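Hey Z.,

So I finally got round to the adenosine-5'-triphosphate thing we talked about over coffee. Here's the setup:
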Amino acid sequence: MEEKRILVIDDEKNMRHMLAVLLEKEGYQVDSAANGKEGLDLSLESFYDIILCDLKMPVMDGMAYLQSFQDSGQESTVIVMSAYGTLDTAIEAMKLGAYDYVSKPFKADEILLTLRKAEERERLRKENRLLQQSMRERYSFAQMIGPSPAMQEIFATIEKVADYKTSVLITGESGTGKELIARAIHYNSSRADKPLVTVNCGAIPETLLESELFGHKKGAFTDAIRDKKGLFQEAHGGSILLDEIGELPRQLQVKLLRALQEEEIKRVGDNLSIKIDIRVMAATTKDLAEEVKTGRFRDDLYYRINVLHIGVPPLRERQEDILLLIQHFIDKTSKRLNSEVTGVSPAAGRALQAYSWPGNVRELENIIERAMVMANGSTIGREDLPSYLQPQEETVEYFTDDENLSIKEASRKLEKILIRRALEKTEGNRTQAAKILEISHPALLYKMKDYGLD
Ligand SMILES: Nc1ncnc2c1ncn2[C@@H]1O[C@H](COP(=O)(O)OP(=O)(O)OP(=O)(O)O)[C@@H](O)[C@H]1O
Ligand SMILES: [Mg+2]
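And the result:
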């Protein structure tokens, strides 16, 4: 086993000596310092697995040491030693990030047990970090994260179809990752070194769209002062993504269909046909089948592009993806923002998982970036999230926390809510409130007093 390094910081020489002897016998490598200042110099110079630190010391005391050490961003496990009368400080120290404390005087067994516990925690933490990393590698595909069965199935489909020229229709709410999927298909295909051209059918004015797609010949219309290559020609040999295809005007739908079927295009104002070899993908937030029914979208074009359909579920239907996506966005963004944020607090994680995500992954990405700017330190807390992700009522938090299993405590919380509501409803009339609550008047008075609802 690798030798663990321990730093003992204590102003009492006897204590330093005793600990050094004890810990070296247990196979640790021990250094010591006589006050916080000395300790800080040593612990910033090299890495210690564990730091045992006294609280009351001259020059720089334990709390000041801990504060400076934490600020340095090092990750050793700190255990504080509290003499009689410094227990409060020891608890403060734990709030500052110390892992545990031992009260002086202690027996050899006691300190060794605390060290074992700390090591076990460190081991788990490392294991967890590795696990997270391998999870992410396992569940990602071409920059896409998705451990959920739905996303795994999509990744498998992408791999299977990438190399065929099959038309693909990608549907899903805004921000679910449709464009990312189209990119993954293109870059996993043999066309990867040829262009992927994206056309936003909804963003180009109808009058220009045809010439954008197919190009035009000089003089085809007033502004056509020279020949222009269309996007289809640009994409020759590669792929084209027709984004927002539901917005394509009907008269262009015919022309698109012809181009797809014949695999050739005609420029505006030109009779010459140009051969094209393109993999066509289309994306839409609309329900195209419904658009076909109502006549807004041509059925023949619909069947032509809908050879393979990839339906991306909204984020709220794949909660399993949320935590890994958060981690992915934190890692991706921290480099760019030069941020020290490395994760989210459990409460923030729960709130993010419970949210309904109308803007899907894009919204999550934005919220994480904003929270990283707001956060102090290395963790995004719930308070760093937007107001609509703040607890509505303390009780909502309470009931969604799976640590809270006491029926007694939950009943009390519930009673308090019901009594408050009954009193609001009856505008403070206790006799009526007691009636609605189906309890006696004295019972209500007693409970109101108990819950501080006067
Ligand atoms: N599975 C995923 N893993 C990592 N990032 C994702 C994932 N899905 C989406 N994103 C990110 O979310 C953002 C939105 O994705 P994208 O643009 O592909 O969505 P879209 O479905 O095309 O949205 P819209 O319909 O609004 O055009 C992008 O920044 C994308 O990188
Ligand atoms: Mg898109």
